Protein backbone atom coordinates (compact mmCIF):
# COMPACT_ATOMS: atom_id res chain seq x y z
CA UNK A 1 0.00 0.00 0.00
CA UNK A 2 1.36 3.39 -1.03
CA UNK A 3 0.37 6.64 0.66
CA UNK A 4 0.71 9.86 -1.30
CA UNK A 5 1.26 13.44 -0.21
CA UNK A 6 1.42 16.60 -2.34
CA UNK A 7 4.43 18.72 -1.41
CA UNK A 8 6.03 21.99 -2.48
CA UNK A 9 9.64 20.86 -2.47
CA UNK A 10 11.97 17.99 -1.69
CA UNK A 11 13.60 19.60 1.35
CA UNK A 12 14.09 17.61 4.54
CA UNK A 13 11.70 19.62 6.69
CA UNK A 14 8.72 19.07 4.43
CA UNK A 15 9.75 15.43 3.87
CA UNK A 16 9.69 14.70 7.61
CA UNK A 17 6.30 16.36 7.96
CA UNK A 18 4.94 14.31 5.07
CA UNK A 19 6.32 11.06 6.51
CA UNK A 20 4.78 11.83 9.91
CA UNK A 21 1.38 12.52 8.34
CA UNK A 22 1.52 9.44 6.10
CA UNK A 23 2.61 7.19 8.97
CA UNK A 24 -0.33 8.31 11.08
CA UNK A 25 -2.62 7.40 8.18
CA UNK A 26 -0.88 4.03 7.87
CA UNK A 27 -1.46 3.27 11.56
CA UNK A 28 -5.16 3.99 11.08
CA UNK A 29 -5.19 1.69 8.06
CA UNK A 30 -3.48 -1.16 9.94
CA UNK A 31 -5.66 -0.94 13.02
CA UNK A 32 -8.87 0.11 11.30
CA UNK A 33 -9.47 2.67 14.05
CA UNK A 34 -9.12 6.43 13.73
CA UNK A 35 -7.83 6.96 17.28
CA UNK A 36 -4.85 4.60 17.06
CA UNK A 37 -2.17 7.28 16.31
CA UNK A 38 -3.23 9.14 19.47
CA UNK A 39 -2.98 6.16 21.86
CA UNK A 40 -0.35 6.71 24.58
CA UNK A 41 1.46 3.45 23.84
CA UNK A 42 1.82 4.38 20.15
CA UNK A 43 3.61 7.69 20.69
CA UNK A 44 7.03 6.04 20.79
CA UNK A 45 6.47 4.78 17.22
CA UNK A 46 5.79 8.33 16.02
CA UNK A 47 9.16 9.67 17.18
CA UNK A 48 11.01 8.33 14.11
CA UNK A 49 8.42 7.05 11.63
CA UNK A 50 10.97 7.14 8.80
CA UNK A 51 12.61 4.00 10.20
CA UNK A 52 9.52 2.06 9.09
CA UNK A 53 9.80 3.30 5.49
CA UNK A 54 10.48 0.72 2.80
CA UNK A 55 10.68 3.18 -0.07
CA UNK A 56 9.65 6.62 -1.26
CA UNK A 57 9.83 8.57 -4.49
CA UNK A 58 8.92 11.98 -5.88
CA UNK A 59 6.90 12.42 -9.05
CA UNK A 60 6.25 15.83 -10.65
CA UNK A 61 2.63 16.90 -10.69
CA UNK A 62 1.06 17.45 -14.09
CA UNK A 63 0.12 21.00 -14.97
CA UNK A 64 -3.57 20.36 -14.41
CA UNK A 65 -2.84 18.84 -10.97
CA UNK A 66 -0.89 21.81 -9.61
CA UNK A 67 -2.57 23.31 -6.59
CA UNK A 68 -2.17 26.47 -4.57
CA UNK A 69 -1.04 25.28 -1.20
CA UNK A 70 0.01 21.87 0.04
CA UNK A 71 -0.81 20.02 3.21
CA UNK A 72 2.38 21.32 4.82
CA UNK A 73 3.13 24.67 3.15
CA UNK A 74 -0.25 26.29 2.60
CA UNK A 75 0.98 29.51 0.97
CA UNK A 76 2.96 27.89 -1.85
CA UNK A 77 2.09 25.83 -4.89
CA UNK A 78 2.44 22.04 -4.57
CA UNK A 79 4.67 20.72 -7.34
CA UNK A 80 5.51 17.17 -6.30
CA UNK A 81 3.66 13.98 -5.49
CA UNK A 82 5.51 12.10 -2.73
CA UNK A 83 4.71 8.37 -2.67
CA UNK A 84 5.63 6.44 0.46
CA UNK A 85 5.48 2.74 1.32
CA UNK A 86 5.93 1.40 4.84
CA UNK A 87 7.15 -2.01 6.05
CA UNK A 88 3.97 -3.89 6.99
CA UNK A 89 5.66 -6.60 9.07
CA UNK A 90 7.82 -4.13 10.99
CA UNK A 91 4.85 -1.89 11.81
CA UNK A 92 2.67 -4.87 12.70
CA UNK A 93 5.33 -6.16 15.10
CA UNK A 94 5.82 -2.70 16.64
CA UNK A 95 2.07 -2.24 17.22
CA UNK A 96 1.77 -5.72 18.70
CA UNK A 97 4.71 -5.20 21.04
CA UNK A 98 3.24 -2.01 22.53
CA UNK A 99 -0.22 -3.52 22.91
CA UNK A 100 -1.90 -1.44 20.19
CA UNK A 101 -4.77 -2.81 18.05
CA UNK A 102 -4.03 -4.60 14.76
CA UNK A 103 -6.75 -5.61 12.34
CA UNK A 104 -5.29 -8.48 10.39
CA UNK A 105 -6.23 -9.45 6.86
CA UNK A 106 -8.41 -10.63 5.30
CA UNK A 107 -11.02 -8.26 6.71
CA UNK A 108 -14.77 -8.66 6.31
CA UNK A 109 -16.67 -6.67 3.72
CA UNK A 110 -19.24 -4.10 4.80
CA UNK A 111 -22.65 -4.04 3.11
CA UNK A 112 -23.95 -0.47 2.95
CA UNK A 113 -27.65 0.35 2.67
CA UNK A 114 -27.62 4.12 2.17
CA UNK A 115 -30.72 6.26 1.81
CA UNK A 116 -30.62 10.04 1.75
CA UNK A 117 -33.16 12.82 1.52
CA UNK A 118 -32.43 15.86 -0.63
CA UNK A 119 -33.26 19.47 0.25
CA UNK A 120 -36.54 19.20 -1.65
CA UNK A 121 -37.65 16.15 0.37
CA UNK A 122 -37.03 13.44 -2.25
CA UNK A 123 -35.46 10.20 -1.00
CA UNK A 124 -32.99 8.05 -2.89
CA UNK A 125 -31.20 4.75 -2.24
CA UNK A 126 -27.61 4.25 -3.45
CA UNK A 127 -27.31 1.00 -5.42
CA UNK A 128 -24.53 -0.86 -7.21
CA UNK A 129 -26.13 -0.69 -10.65
CA UNK A 130 -26.80 3.06 -10.90
CA UNK A 131 -23.87 5.51 -11.01
CA UNK A 132 -23.86 8.08 -8.23
CA UNK A 133 -21.18 10.50 -7.02
CA UNK A 134 -21.66 9.18 -3.48
CA UNK A 135 -20.27 5.79 -4.52
CA UNK A 136 -16.77 7.28 -4.74
CA UNK A 137 -17.28 8.91 -1.33
CA UNK A 138 -18.06 5.51 0.20
CA UNK A 139 -15.07 3.90 -1.53
CA UNK A 140 -12.73 6.67 -0.39
CA UNK A 141 -13.71 6.24 3.25
CA UNK A 142 -13.40 2.46 3.05
CA UNK A 143 -9.90 2.59 1.52
CA UNK A 144 -8.56 4.63 4.45
CA UNK A 145 -9.58 1.80 6.79
CA UNK A 146 -8.58 -1.10 4.56
CA UNK A 147 -12.16 -2.26 4.03
CA UNK A 148 -14.24 -3.15 1.01
CA UNK A 149 -17.71 -1.62 0.62
CA UNK A 150 -20.49 -3.64 -1.01
CA UNK A 151 -23.61 -1.97 -2.38
CA UNK A 152 -26.92 -3.76 -2.99
CA UNK A 153 -28.85 -4.05 -6.23
CA UNK A 154 -31.94 -3.02 -4.32
CA UNK A 155 -34.11 -4.67 -6.93
CA UNK A 156 -37.67 -5.91 -6.53
CA UNK A 157 -36.48 -8.94 -4.57
CA UNK A 158 -34.59 -6.73 -2.10
CA UNK A 159 -37.49 -4.31 -1.81
CA UNK A 160 -39.82 -7.13 -0.92
CA UNK A 161 -37.69 -7.98 2.10
CA UNK A 162 -36.56 -4.43 2.89
CA UNK A 163 -39.06 -1.82 1.69
CA UNK A 164 -37.84 1.75 1.53
CA UNK A 165 -39.86 2.57 4.64
CA UNK A 166 -38.09 -0.23 6.55
CA UNK A 167 -34.69 0.96 5.30
CA UNK A 168 -35.47 4.53 6.35
CA UNK A 169 -36.66 3.19 9.71
CA UNK A 170 -33.42 1.15 10.15
CA UNK A 171 -35.46 -1.96 10.96
CA UNK A 172 -33.11 -4.60 12.32
CA UNK A 173 -34.73 -7.89 11.30
CA UNK A 174 -35.44 -6.81 7.73
CA UNK A 175 -31.91 -5.47 7.35
CA UNK A 176 -30.41 -8.68 8.71
CA UNK A 177 -32.51 -10.83 6.40
CA UNK A 178 -31.76 -8.91 3.21
CA UNK A 179 -28.03 -8.72 4.00
CA UNK A 180 -27.88 -12.48 4.49
CA UNK A 181 -29.17 -12.90 0.94
CA UNK A 182 -25.85 -11.29 -0.13
CA UNK A 183 -23.91 -13.58 2.25
CA UNK A 184 -22.75 -10.56 4.25
CA UNK A 185 -22.63 -10.75 8.05
CA UNK A 186 -21.57 -7.11 8.52
CA UNK A 187 -23.92 -4.44 7.24
CA UNK A 188 -24.97 -0.88 7.96
CA UNK A 189 -28.23 0.94 7.25
CA UNK A 190 -27.64 4.67 6.95
CA UNK A 191 -30.09 7.53 6.49
CA UNK A 192 -29.00 11.11 5.87
CA UNK A 193 -31.20 14.19 5.66
CA UNK A 194 -30.98 17.99 6.09
CA UNK A 195 -32.22 19.60 9.31
CA UNK A 196 -31.20 23.16 8.37
CA UNK A 197 -29.37 25.04 5.64
CA UNK A 198 -25.99 24.12 7.16
CA UNK A 199 -26.67 20.91 9.11
CA UNK A 200 -27.26 17.33 8.02
CA UNK A 201 -28.40 14.56 10.35
CA UNK A 202 -27.21 10.97 10.04
CA UNK A 203 -28.63 7.89 11.79
CA UNK A 204 -27.22 4.38 11.45
CA UNK A 205 -27.73 0.80 12.49
CA UNK A 206 -24.62 -1.39 12.30
CA UNK A 207 -25.10 -5.16 12.29
CA UNK A 208 -22.23 -7.51 13.14
CA UNK A 209 -22.47 -11.26 13.82
CA UNK A 210 -23.08 -10.79 17.54
CA UNK A 211 -24.38 -7.24 17.88
CA UNK A 212 -26.62 -4.46 16.61
CA UNK A 213 -25.50 -0.88 17.30
CA UNK A 214 -27.22 2.42 16.52
CA UNK A 215 -25.57 5.81 16.17
CA UNK A 216 -26.48 9.41 15.27
CA UNK A 217 -24.71 12.68 14.56
CA UNK A 218 -24.74 16.01 12.75
CA UNK A 219 -22.39 17.32 10.04
CA UNK A 220 -22.10 20.42 7.87
CA UNK A 221 -23.20 18.79 4.60
CA UNK A 222 -24.40 15.54 3.08
CA UNK A 223 -20.98 14.18 2.14
CA UNK A 224 -19.49 15.00 5.54
CA UNK A 225 -22.45 13.30 7.24
CA UNK A 226 -21.95 10.10 5.23
CA UNK A 227 -18.21 10.10 5.90
CA UNK A 228 -18.70 10.65 9.64
CA UNK A 229 -21.31 7.88 9.86
CA UNK A 230 -19.11 5.35 8.03
CA UNK A 231 -15.98 6.22 10.00
CA UNK A 232 -17.88 5.77 13.25
CA UNK A 233 -19.19 2.38 12.07
CA UNK A 234 -15.71 1.27 11.01
CA UNK A 235 -14.30 2.25 14.39
CA UNK A 236 -16.91 -0.04 15.96
CA UNK A 237 -15.96 -2.84 13.58
CA UNK A 238 -12.30 -2.38 14.53
CA UNK A 239 -13.25 -2.62 18.19
CA UNK A 240 -14.89 -5.94 17.38
CA UNK A 241 -12.33 -7.48 15.01
CA UNK A 242 -8.92 -5.93 15.71
CA UNK A 243 -6.42 -7.87 17.78
CA UNK A 244 -5.18 -6.12 20.91
CA UNK A 245 -3.25 -7.96 23.60
CA UNK A 246 -1.23 -7.27 26.69
CA UNK A 247 2.32 -8.09 25.48
CA UNK A 248 3.38 -9.01 29.02
CA UNK A 249 0.76 -11.76 29.32
CA UNK A 250 1.31 -15.28 27.98
CA UNK A 251 0.03 -18.80 28.50
CA UNK A 252 -0.10 -22.21 26.81
CA UNK A 253 -3.25 -23.81 25.41
CA UNK A 254 -4.08 -26.97 23.50
CA UNK A 255 -5.46 -27.02 19.95
CA UNK A 256 -7.16 -30.21 18.74
CA UNK A 257 -7.49 -31.07 15.04
CA UNK A 258 -8.74 -34.13 13.18
CA UNK A 259 -7.90 -35.37 9.69
CA UNK A 260 -4.11 -35.18 10.15
CA UNK A 261 -2.64 -38.33 8.61
CA UNK A 262 0.85 -37.44 7.43
CA UNK A 263 3.91 -35.62 8.63
CA UNK A 264 3.71 -33.21 5.68
CA UNK A 265 0.21 -32.23 6.82
CA UNK A 266 1.49 -31.62 10.32
CA UNK A 267 4.32 -29.42 9.07
CA UNK A 268 1.92 -27.39 6.93
CA UNK A 269 -0.53 -26.92 9.78
CA UNK A 270 2.14 -25.74 12.16
CA UNK A 271 3.43 -23.26 9.57
CA UNK A 272 -0.07 -21.81 9.14
CA UNK A 273 -0.59 -21.50 12.90
CA UNK A 274 2.73 -19.72 13.27
CA UNK A 275 1.38 -16.99 10.97
CA UNK A 276 -1.15 -16.01 13.64
CA UNK A 277 0.35 -13.05 15.45
CA UNK A 278 -0.70 -14.17 18.93
CA UNK A 279 0.93 -17.59 18.55
CA UNK A 280 4.62 -17.59 19.41
CA UNK A 281 5.33 -21.32 19.40
CA UNK A 282 3.63 -24.54 18.27
CA UNK A 283 4.64 -27.94 19.68
CA UNK A 284 2.93 -31.29 18.94
CA UNK A 285 1.62 -32.66 22.23
CA UNK A 286 -0.18 -35.88 21.39
CA UNK A 287 -2.04 -37.76 18.68
CA UNK A 288 -4.53 -40.59 18.35
CA UNK A 289 -5.64 -41.97 15.00
CA UNK A 290 -5.93 -38.93 12.75
CA UNK A 291 -6.46 -36.55 15.67
CA UNK A 292 -3.62 -34.42 16.97
CA UNK A 293 -3.21 -32.06 19.90
CA UNK A 294 -0.88 -29.08 19.48
CA UNK A 295 0.38 -27.03 22.40
CA UNK A 296 0.34 -23.32 21.54
CA UNK A 297 2.35 -20.73 23.42
CA UNK A 298 0.43 -17.49 23.02
CA UNK A 299 0.77 -13.83 23.91
CA UNK A 300 -2.46 -12.71 25.57
CA UNK A 301 -5.15 -15.09 26.81
CA UNK A 302 -7.05 -18.04 25.39
CA UNK A 303 -10.37 -16.16 25.17
CA UNK A 304 -8.83 -13.59 22.85
CA UNK A 305 -7.14 -16.34 20.82
CA UNK A 306 -10.47 -18.13 20.41
CA UNK A 307 -12.05 -14.91 19.14
CA UNK A 308 -9.09 -14.23 16.84
CA UNK A 309 -9.16 -17.70 15.28
CA UNK A 310 -12.95 -17.55 14.92
CA UNK A 311 -12.55 -14.30 12.96
CA UNK A 312 -9.56 -15.54 10.96
CA UNK A 313 -11.37 -17.03 7.95
CA UNK A 314 -8.12 -17.48 6.03
CA UNK A 315 -6.79 -19.85 8.69
CA UNK A 316 -9.88 -22.03 8.44
CA UNK A 317 -9.39 -22.23 4.67
CA UNK A 318 -5.71 -23.11 5.08
CA UNK A 319 -6.52 -25.82 7.64
CA UNK A 320 -9.04 -27.31 5.23
CA UNK A 321 -6.46 -27.29 2.42
CA UNK A 322 -4.14 -29.27 4.67
CA UNK A 323 -6.81 -31.93 5.14
CA UNK A 324 -8.20 -30.87 8.51
CA UNK A 325 -11.75 -32.18 8.83
CA UNK A 326 -12.55 -30.48 12.13
CA UNK A 327 -10.81 -28.24 14.63
CA UNK A 328 -11.78 -27.34 18.18
CA UNK A 329 -10.79 -23.90 19.41
CA UNK A 330 -7.80 -23.81 21.76
CA UNK A 331 -8.35 -23.71 25.50
CA UNK A 332 -11.85 -25.20 25.48
CA UNK A 333 -12.89 -27.90 27.94
CA UNK A 334 -13.46 -30.34 25.08
CA UNK A 335 -9.82 -30.04 24.01
CA UNK A 336 -8.50 -30.41 27.55
CA UNK A 337 -10.70 -33.42 28.38
CA UNK A 338 -9.79 -35.12 25.13
CA UNK A 339 -6.05 -35.06 25.73
CA UNK A 340 -6.40 -36.01 29.38
CA UNK A 341 -7.76 -39.37 28.25
CA UNK A 342 -4.36 -40.20 26.74
CA UNK A 343 -1.96 -41.69 29.26
CA UNK A 344 1.04 -41.06 26.98
CA UNK A 345 1.70 -38.91 23.94
CA UNK A 346 1.04 -40.78 20.72
CA UNK A 347 1.98 -40.57 17.04
CA UNK A 348 -0.17 -41.88 14.19
CA UNK A 349 1.12 -44.90 12.31
CA UNK A 350 0.54 -45.87 8.70
CA UNK A 351 -2.53 -47.95 9.60
CA UNK A 352 -3.69 -45.39 12.19
CA UNK A 353 -2.51 -47.62 15.06
CA UNK A 354 -0.91 -45.72 17.97
CA UNK A 355 2.88 -45.59 18.13
CA UNK A 356 4.40 -44.71 21.50
CA UNK A 357 6.00 -41.30 21.38
CA UNK A 358 8.50 -40.39 24.05
CA UNK A 359 8.32 -36.85 25.35
CA UNK A 360 11.37 -34.64 25.52
CA UNK A 361 12.04 -35.54 29.14
CA UNK A 362 12.39 -39.21 28.23
CA UNK A 363 13.67 -39.27 24.68
CA UNK A 364 16.57 -36.92 25.26
CA UNK A 365 17.97 -38.89 28.21
CA UNK A 366 21.46 -40.07 27.53
CA UNK A 367 22.03 -38.07 24.36
CA UNK A 368 25.73 -37.47 24.12
CA UNK A 369 26.45 -34.12 22.51
CA UNK A 370 29.63 -35.52 21.04
CA UNK A 371 27.92 -38.50 19.44
CA UNK A 372 28.14 -38.26 15.69
CA UNK A 373 25.71 -39.24 12.97
CA UNK A 374 27.03 -38.66 9.47
CA UNK A 375 24.85 -37.25 6.72
CA UNK A 376 24.80 -40.40 4.60
CA UNK A 377 23.75 -42.52 7.56
CA UNK A 378 21.17 -39.95 8.56
CA UNK A 379 19.48 -40.04 5.17
CA UNK A 380 19.19 -43.83 5.15
CA UNK A 381 18.03 -43.92 8.77
CA UNK A 382 15.40 -41.23 8.28
CA UNK A 383 13.89 -43.14 5.36
CA UNK A 384 13.59 -46.21 7.59
CA UNK A 385 12.12 -44.15 10.39
CA UNK A 386 9.61 -42.55 8.04
CA UNK A 387 8.47 -45.98 6.90
CA UNK A 388 8.11 -47.20 10.48
CA UNK A 389 5.91 -44.33 11.68
CA UNK A 390 4.01 -43.97 8.42
CA UNK A 391 4.80 -40.37 7.49
CA UNK A 392 4.84 -39.25 3.87
CA UNK A 393 8.35 -37.82 3.78
CA UNK A 394 11.57 -38.61 5.65
CA UNK A 395 11.73 -37.17 9.15
CA UNK A 396 15.07 -35.89 10.34
CA UNK A 397 17.20 -37.55 13.03
CA UNK A 398 18.65 -35.51 15.86
CA UNK A 399 21.42 -37.74 17.18
CA UNK A 400 22.40 -41.32 17.87
CA UNK A 401 23.53 -42.99 21.08
CA UNK A 402 23.56 -46.48 22.54
CA UNK A 403 19.75 -46.42 22.94
CA UNK A 404 19.14 -45.94 19.22
CA UNK A 405 18.30 -43.10 16.84
CA UNK A 406 16.56 -39.99 18.13
CA UNK A 407 14.23 -38.12 15.78
CA UNK A 408 12.58 -34.80 16.08
CA UNK A 409 8.84 -34.55 15.38
CA UNK A 410 9.28 -31.06 13.85
CA UNK A 411 12.41 -30.95 11.66
CA UNK A 412 14.22 -27.82 12.80
CA UNK A 413 17.77 -29.15 12.50
CA UNK A 414 21.02 -27.61 11.46
CA UNK A 415 24.13 -29.33 10.10
CA UNK A 416 27.46 -28.71 11.78
CA UNK A 417 30.63 -30.64 10.93
CA UNK A 418 28.52 -33.36 9.30
CA UNK A 419 26.62 -33.89 12.56
CA UNK A 420 22.92 -33.15 12.90
CA UNK A 421 22.18 -31.53 16.26
CA UNK A 422 19.15 -30.07 18.04
CA UNK A 423 18.50 -26.40 17.39
CA UNK A 424 16.03 -25.79 20.23
CA UNK A 425 15.64 -27.43 23.62
CA UNK A 426 11.86 -27.74 23.65
CA UNK A 427 11.47 -30.09 20.66
CA UNK A 428 9.41 -33.26 21.09
CA UNK A 429 11.62 -36.27 20.41
CA UNK A 430 10.75 -39.89 19.71
CA UNK A 431 12.95 -42.92 19.51
CA UNK A 432 13.38 -45.70 16.97
CA UNK A 433 15.32 -48.59 18.50
* Residue runs with pLDDT of under 50 for 5 or more positions: 337-433
Radius of gyration: 28 Å
CATH class of the largest domain: Alpha Beta
Task: Assign the CATH architecture of the largest domain.
Answer: Alpha-Beta Complex
CATH fold group of the largest domain:
Maf protein
Global shape: globular
Oligomer: single chain
What is the strand content?
25-35%
The number of E-state strands comes to: 22
How far do the termini sit from each other?
Answer: 54 Å
- Residues in helix, %: 25-40%
Alpha-beta content class: alpha+beta
Largest sheet: number of strands, sense, barrel closure: 6 strands, mixed
What is the domain tally?
4
Give the helix/strand layout.
Elements (H helix, E strand, L loop, with lengths): L1 E6 L4 H20 L21 E8 L6 E2 L8 E2 L1 E7 L1 H10 L12 E8 L5 E3 L7 H12 L4 E2 L5 H6 L2 H5 L3 H9 L6 E10 L2 E10 L2 E9 L2 H20 L8 E9 L4 H11 L5 E10 L2 E9 L2 H10 L1 H9 L4 E3 L4 H8 L5 E2 L7 E2 L3 H4 L11 H15 L7 E5 L2 E5 L4 E4 L2 E4 L6 E4 L1
Parallel strand pairs: 6-8, 6-9
Antiparallel strand pairs: 1-5, 2-5, 3-4, 6-7, 9-10, 10-11, 12-14, 12-15, 13-14, 16-17, 18-19, 19-22, 20-21
Helix pairs in contact: 3-7
Pfam families: DUF2066
Protein name: DUF2066 domain-containing protein
InterPro entries: DUF2066 (IPR018642)
Amino acid sequence: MSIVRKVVSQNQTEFKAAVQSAFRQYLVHMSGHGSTPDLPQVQSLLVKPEKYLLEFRYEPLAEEELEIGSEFVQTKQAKWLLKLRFDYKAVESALFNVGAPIWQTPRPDLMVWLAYESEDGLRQVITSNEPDALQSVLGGVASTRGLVIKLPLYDDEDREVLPESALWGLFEEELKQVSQSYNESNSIALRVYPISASEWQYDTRLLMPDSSVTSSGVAADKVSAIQAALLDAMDKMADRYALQVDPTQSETVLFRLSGVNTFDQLQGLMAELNKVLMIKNVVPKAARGNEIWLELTIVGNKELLQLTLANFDQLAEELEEHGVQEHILPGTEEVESGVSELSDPLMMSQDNQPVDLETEGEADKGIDDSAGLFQGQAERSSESAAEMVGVSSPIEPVQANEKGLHYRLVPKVQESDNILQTQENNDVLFEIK
